[in-house]
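Budget justification note: compute hours in this period were largely spent on complex prediction jobs such as the one shown. Inputs:
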Amino acid sequence: METKEAVFRVLRFNPERDEKPSYQTFHVKIDKRMTVLDALEDIKHDQDASLTFRRSCRSGICGSCAMKINRLAKLACKTRATTEVDKHGQVLVEPMENMPLIRDLVADMAEFWRETERAIPWLVWDESLTSSLKENLLTNEQQQASGKLADCIMCGACFSDCISRVFDKNFTGPASLAKIHRFVADPRDKQGAKRVHGLVEMGLWSCTHCYFCWSQCPRDVRPVAAISELRTLSFGSLDPSQGARHVEAFMDSVKSKGMLNEASLYLKTMRWNMFRDFDLILKMAAKGKAPSPFPQAIPKIDEVRSLFRLIKEMKEK
Amino acid sequence: MIKHDVAVVGAGLAGLRAAIEAKEKGADVAVLSKLHPVRSHSDQAQGGINAPLSEDDNWEKHAFDTIKGSDYLADQDAVELMCKDAPRAIIELEHWGALFSRTEAGRLAQRPFGGAGFPRTCFAADKTGHVLQTTIYEQTRKNDVQIYEEWFATSLVVEDNVCKGLTAIEITTGEVQAVQAKAVILATGGAGQVYSKTTNSLTTTGDGIAMAYNAGLPIEDMEFVQFHPTSLYGSNILISEGARGEGGYLINTLGERFMKKYAPDKMELAPRDIVSRSIETEIREGRGFEGGFVHLDLRNLGEAKINERLPTIRELAIYFAGVDPVKEPIPIQPAQHYTMGGIPADLDGVTSIRGLYGAGECACVSVHGANRLGGNSLLDTVVFGKRAGAKAAEYAKEVSFVSFSEVTLREEQKRIETLLNRKDGVKASEIKKALGNTMIDKVGIFRHRRELETAKRNVATLQRQFQNVCVLDSSRKFNTSLIETLEVGFALDLAEVTIAGALARRESRGAHYRIDYPKRDDAKWLKHTLAIRTAEGPRLSYKPVTITRFPPEARGY
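Corresponding output:
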């Protein structure tokens, strides 16, 4: 097979020798079939035995070899080297982020594992459903939502590239919330929607919907979609969080007036907390910059309302 | 020093199932694993797990299929027990949360599998191992099982035929430590990486079997190595038997479904040894494609069924071979897949060393004999993992901790220090490459005395080179080069045992096929091989096969 030489720039860090990480360049012969993992194995065996990374199954299922390849977290065994070279001119390889570095491409995943266990990470079986000698009756359709989320291989790619986690260490991260929704969506789980309680403290509303967890997931688990579902479930609880109130107020405003009214959005979201910002509100009002909390509806408000009716009907179907 | 009633080595299905059981029985239990548990090789199982669930099926039929599949080398008491316990084991997994594929009526769906007279393989699409491994790991969280992840076990501490614990490297720090335990359960999986063409993970290196062998335990039936008929040409990534179970065809260059010549009745769903030999024969006789492969054609299944039942297969074929099975046949060839032999263990995982237990692929109970049926290995792990866990916990309750000499620990520390400090020598990766090629070329699907003897000489040479192996990385922390070197050492020992057993066994049975002795010979060879370590290499002895109600007969499909 035709080969060409490719440049691999690899982050190196040996805690026994180095004060801080640096980059080392390797030249590797690659063919069109080779993965980044194949190339790293070649480097380790032919050029530098001390190059350190995790790997096991080499077929994209065990989740060992997640690392940053040209700035995005990916499984090295599921990333073709030539594709990266064609796109970026070289292959820049670095350890995952949002985790401390152990050595070279090996990140310390302890925090990631801890996060996935902050809520009950197992099925709480409802014994009343069936006898201990029989399986629960369940259709493939009833299992579909959990099944998709159960595809998660805990590689950590979503956690590594999660922007919210960078700023909010209390945010439990995409994989953790996907795991929770995997049980919420499982008809056999006794906890079910009750699992939503306590998620506000785990940062349910910290996600900014950047969609990196969707794009970087090697198993197409789509954690951000699970996060949206969990947020929806958290509406209507007795004490909805600020995040839930924000979404509800947004929708109310559009539904009733056909447009977003910043004043009512703010008041409904913040409630009594608005007194924190009282100074600012007065200053804005003085300069005529605070919108009225009682706006007029837009002229064709009926059209907006019929859209809402349509969505409601579609949902009910 | 770390101290536990029960130490389980390996965190795949067998190890975790054993740990859960031992914990439930009240033992203080810890699991050591060189990987995080969810990375274990059990995760890669695709096709399914067998259990006679349907009203028209029963444990006798399952047992008969298993024993016939094993070419009558399986111990029938063990097979009976496994098949009787299978429905309970499956229901337990379902109650724990496993998401099995379902029938229209919502029951557990079952697909046909090789060598089975009945569709009795439960499955979760083509990711059964992942679903079960995740589920069972979740149960270890529920039961609060302590796990030492990324700890690499290097040797057992055995004195006066009593196992007192083990030594292990904590990979993150590089420290060699002793783990004292009343009972040790080995559940470290198979030895696929002895071969250069294998469906197994890069970490499936037979560590536990080799540690038991080094501790003086005779190792059983290592010459029986399963080759999976359908691995992806090029990477040897597994393409599940489920692909044929759902109706896929095997096709040669002439466009023939060639299995009609070899197994006219069962066709593509003959047992794996027979299908692998058939494919290899087609290739050797010139009816394979250039490079050495045949076609697995799934196009007759249609896109909808492929997406529902075989989504991973489609993804793997597209990604790793550039072929979409909906539109084109998949290029496949046989590759090493499963180690039938291993640590001789009874129905409760008990070995002949007191306090040492074995479960899962590293053990040889023997339920698979000379050839394992697809769907029986996952079953083996949960049935015998549970039993080993219960027995080890019971034993740990009866005995107290005894004096633990640190001789083994100091020896291991010294051995590893020497390895790390050696400045030049042969690279472990080179030895591994040469070993893998020798094994696939000379100890593969078809074997012959001449080739086996060459293999024996090659491995002896590699063993000598290994005396001077060089790690080329003297750091302590997260030294994967050191771990790989120790793994190659284990693999060399197991290769030696495999070759010795294969050379001695002058017959063909199951996966062991001798061109120079093509017939099964029950009069002389209906017996298990045992290989014990001596200074001159493995010394062989034999033990009888347990036969209960299925006398050996001719094996046709």
